Each structure stands twice: as C-alpha cells, then as structure tokens.
Amino acid sequence: MGCGHKDDKASLASSQRASFSHQPHQSGSAPASKEVWKKGGRMFSILLAVHLALLACTLVSSGAFEKIAVHDYDVFFLLTVMMLIVIVWIIFYLVGTSRCPGAIPCKDSHAGPVWLRGGLVLFAIFSLVMDVFKIGYYSSFYSCLSAIKIIYPIVQAIFVVVQTYFLWVSAKDCVHVHLNVTRCGLMLTLTTNLAVWMSAVTDESVHKAHSKLKKNVTEEIFRWLLKAGMRSGSAEECNCNSQICQVFKNGYFWLYPFNIEYSLFASAMVYVMWKNVGRFIDHHSHHIHRLKFRLFRRTFFVGIVLGLIVLVSGLGVLILYEVQVNSSTESSKKSQALTMYYIFNIVCLGLMSLVCIGGSVIYRFDKRDMDRHKNPTRTLDVALLMGAALGQYAISYYSIVAIVASTPRDAISALNLTYALLMIAQHTFQNIFIIEGLHRQPPKDDHKYDPHQKGLYGLTFVNVNAVSLRVPDGGSTLAPNPAPGAEANHPSDLVRSLTAPKKMNWRRKFLREISIFLLLSNIILWIVPAFGARPQFDNDTELNFYGDSMWPAIVDICLPFGIFYRMHAVASLLEVYIVS
C-alpha cells in the first residue's frame, strides 16, 4: 500500500489544505474549517468496533457460566486472534504509515500527556508480571489443559509491550495518510482492549464470588475453574498442591486490577488518536503549555499532609478489614470491620466533598479565561468522568432503597445509608471541580505588563493604598487624554493590576492544595475496593433485600466503573494541579 496514493479524493483535499496551512493565519477562519473528517471511514470503523465488541461481550459473558456450552478457551482463542491482528497493524503503522512523507504534519499537544503515559507504563509493568504468573500457573499442569491457556498470556505479554511502545511514541499523532486503514486499526485496538478488560473483570468477579461462597472447599473451586479447559483425564490430575503453584495462582489474581486499569487507559488514549486522524491543528489557537510539575514549591503542604494521612489510614483500614472479614468467622468481628470501614469512608468522603465545594467557590473568583478551543482529550476526560460515575451512583441508589425499605435498622445500616449519600455527593462535587479546572486557561506570567504602563510599573516606591485613596473611582481627573485609537489607562485599573497578581497567587495555591489532597484521597479510594475490601458482599441488608443472585450481579457490573472512575479522577486531578 503506497504512502497516501490509495486514499480517496478527501485525502487529496487534505493534502491541499496542508499546503495552505503554511500560509499566514487569517482572522475569520475558524479552526473547524481546517479539519477534514471522513464520515464514511469513521462510520465504517465504528461499525467494525461495535460488532467486534458485541461478539466479545457475548463470548465473555457466556463463558462465565458453567451450564452454557461456551468454554473459557473459546474466549481466549478470540482474544488471542484479536491481539495478534492488532500487533500486526501496529507494526505496519510504525514501519509504514508513520514514515510516509507528510504522514504526520502536526501533533496534538493535549493528547497523551507524560503523566498519562507514565501511568500506562506503570500498569503495563504490573500486567507483564501478571502474565508471567499466569504462564507459571498454567504450566504447572499443562498436560490436562488446553494449549490456548498457555498461549494466551504469552500473546498478551507481547501485545502489552508493543501497544505501550506504540502509545508512548504515537499518542500525539494526527495522521493524514492511510486514513481508513488507520481508523479501522485504532478501533480494532480499542475494541481489543475493551474485550481484554471485560474478560479480566469477569474472571476476577467469578474468582471473588466463589471464594466468598466456598471458602473451605478450595479443591471444588479449583476444579470448577479448570473444568472448561481440560483436554483429557480426571480432575485429580490438575491439582495445584505445590507451594509455587499457589503463589502463581494467588499472585495473578491480586494483579488483575492493574491489568484492568491498563486496558482502560490504553482504550482512552487510542480513542483520542482515532479522533485526531485527519485533523489539522490551528497553531494560533492551540497553545502548547510546557509541563511544570512543582510538587514542593508554591504550596503550604496542607493538602499533601492531609492526603498522606488519608492514604496511610486507608491502607490500615484495608489490612484490618481483610483480616477480620476474610480470616474470621465471628459475626462480631465482621460488624467491627464494617463499622470501621464505613466510618473511614464517611470521614474521607465528607472532607473531599467540602474541599470540592471550596474549590468551586474559589473558581468563581478566578479571573482566568475559559479554554473554549476544540480539545478531543478534554472532551473524552469529561465524558469518562460523567459516565464512570454512573456505576457508583447505581450502587449507592440501590443501597439507599434497600436500607430505607428494610427493617429493623441498626447502626451499620445508618452508617451504610450515610456512606451511600456521601458517595453520591462527593462524585457530583468532584466532577464539577475537575471539569471547571480542565476548562481553565493556564496562568499567565505575572510579570508581563502592558507597555503603556511601563513607566508606572517602574515606580517601585508606589504606595498602593495612597494611590487608591487619592484617585476617584472613575479616575478621570488624573487620567491623561488618550491618543486616538488608544485605550485609556485609568489609575484605578493600575491599582487593580498591581494587586491582582498577589490575589491570583493565593487562589492558585489553594487550588493546588485542593487538587493534591483529592488526588491522594482518590488513590486510596481506588486501592481499597480494587484489592479486596468490598462491603457490598459482606453487608446483609442488600443481600437480603435483593437476593443472592441479583445484588452480586449489580455490584459486579457497576463496581468496575466506580474503580475506573477513581483512577481516571487521579489523572484528571494531576492535570488540574499542574494547570493551577
């Protein structure tokens, strides 16, 4: 396939516009007029993604049930084929498409920021460790397993390495050759990541559900999990009795949350790349802001200290909860663990809600302009924040209905009700704070002044209070007659301009404190449910009200979105912190 020779007439039009883009910018030309969107190619790639996603969702959900004649190795086979196709396309993109003349005339500076790519690499490392554990676990009894169960983690490890490198070097690309192939390849990559995510969530949910229901019959659980993958022989041939086998088995289940987050992070970055295919960047309105991450400068350390206190306290709560709930059969220990969990979350969510309200109030007095330029990355961030919050909203509302309608009501029910209400409030206030922060322009340099006021700013001995007292509100008596076509500089405006930087400094410091506190708090609120503490399965109120089948299904469907919300909020708050 030639470089740009097999595209349709729209590709030729895009190349012509690219040549025109080097001309001086003219006022009145909107940024949208410089972008070429190929509706047909986009629609075809969307249809391809929808059909593949539905097929993968059908197989993954069917393979989770024992009585349905769809085995887990059928799911692994489909995912392996999809990952191999994506690997081939990524190699073609890196070797062929990206090296064509004029393939990438511009880059989106907002796409793939360094902290997002750094998080992707971190999750990729843990995903590779998980694949190593999987390979070691399944290799312990390869004689009675389907070969695809060993091939799948090997292919997944290669897929993670290739995709991580691809997103690190190409996340900002605005491709202008091989448009249809690139769009379909990116949508296939996005669908593959979502399919891997669905498979990991389902596998983790099945494992946790059976470990809760059959704590003392681990042999039966093991046979149930391996039943679909056996080629021959009886169940006794596949016992995992060695210590190293148990380490591999428990290890890769503990690393599932990192693999789940990796798939979602990669999906978000691939979607932004798909939106940028064929896009032209207006450099006059698309300002590039360099990363200035100063963690220990221009801060009071209040947000960091409070955030670290919440983080350490949350880790302690997680450890105690796991010990008392999973290692003890006494009901009193379980009640103490639930009480401790709810009290910690009520305090944490209450503080976060108050802080978010304070941050929104500070934004009301912020004089920075709103950033109204087109930004696919920011649009996706807002959509993910609003969409992922729906999962926790659903769980909270189901809990509220169950608690209010159930009798009798005890102290744990009251704590659970307060926890559910605060969870709704905190998500709402935090979304408002983050979205406002993402739409703010980065602060300008405080030392850049109007050339007309150069002489006035040179008076270092100016007494601001005296100037403000001697100058009337209108400033007309001391203001000289402005030249024709020039703007009048009133002394009252001078006073405001002299005092404004100091006020902006205080506002920005408070916003940075709020952002870092929310960031650390969201990290612990991601760790606690992601690594085991899930009171939804241990509180009897919802289980008795909705039943043993409906309530676990609601939690299994909605909780992954709530966990993803926390990690995505961390990335968004980091951006708000840097921009503040």
TrEMBL record:
User: Molecular function terms in GO for this entry?
Assistant: proton channel activity
Q: Which residues cross the membrane?
A: 43-63, 75-95, 115-138, 150-169, 181-200, 253-274, 295-321, 341-363, 383-405, 417-438, 510-529, 549-565
- Show the InterPro entries listed in the entry: Otopetrin
Its main subcellular localisation, reduced to a broad class, is membrane
How does it sit in the bilayer?
Multi-pass membrane protein
Cellular component per GO, a single term: plasma membrane
Localisation = Cell membrane
List keywords of the entry alphabetically. Cell membrane, Hydrogen ion transport, Ion channel, Ion transport, Membrane, Transmembrane, Transmembrane helix, Transport
Q: What family is it from? A: Belongs to the otopetrin family.
Indicate what this protein is called per its UniProt record: OTOP2 protein
Organism of provenance? Centropus bengalensis
